[in-house]
Specification:
single chain; globular
């Protein structure tokens, strides 16, 4: 038993040592990449709108495949991580920039989903896919926390960048944003509140 505990302790220490063993160069590259990918330019906001439109159509069609596809396009994860980084660094200029970028992205996303649902939704706009994005659970919080850790680790490990799309799918930021717009277009306030709570849980968890 003592031997097993010693092995577990040694293994856990080696894991944490490996996590901490990140070069200053990789850290600098990660910070630079994070700031660049969350820059509030045309490309960023255009991709946000496209991803939300895809998610909205996927929700209206009750198509999980389309919803998953929309999350692969979305860049909205990066301003959230940039905000987390700026808080850790106590960089108030970066905090202001990240907050403004995230706020604009969320407003544009809800507006895009609202108009898409208004024109294409119809009476049966509240599909099961929409309802799935209105009831956050403790598991939802756990997923967001783990995904936030995973993407932070991936950013400082250049060789793991190919895993970012999978992490973006896991954290699911775009579908609840689209569900908010669908709820507004349908005047379904229960959906709006539930989707807003779901999105908030994910953002805070990350």
């Amino acid at each position: 038993m003592t031997h097993q505990l010693a092995v577990c302790r040694t293994y856990s220490m080696s894991v944490f040592d490996h996590i901490r063993a990140v070069s200053e160069h990789d850290k600098s590259v990660a910070v630079k990449k994070l700031i660049e990918t969350s820059t509030p330019n045309f490309d960023f906001f255009f991709l946000v709108i496209l991803s939300v439109l895809m998610a909205t159509f996927g929700l209206l069609e009750n198509s999980p495949a389309v919803v998953i596809g929309s999350m692969l396009v979305a860049p909205i994860l990066f301003p959230i991580l940039s905000l987390s980084l700026s808080i850790v660094m106590s960089d108030y200029k970066l905090i202001s920039r990240a907050t403004t970028t995230l706020f604009k992205a969320l407003v544009l996303g809800v507006a895009a989903a609202f108009f898409a649902a208004l024109f294409f939704g119809g009476a049966d706009a509240i599909t099961p896919e929409v309802l799935q994005r209105t009831a956050p659970t403790l598991v939802s919080i756990a997923i967001a926390v783990v995904a936030g850790f995973a993407v932070a680790y991936t950013l400082v490990r250049p060789g793991l960048s190919a895993t970012l799309p999978g992490i973006a799918v896991a954290v699911a930021l775009i579908p609840p944003l689209a569900a908010m717009g669908v709820g507004l277009a349908s005047f379904n306030w229960a959906v709006v509140v539930g989707a807003t709570l779901f999105l908030t849980v994910n953002v805070v968890g990350i």
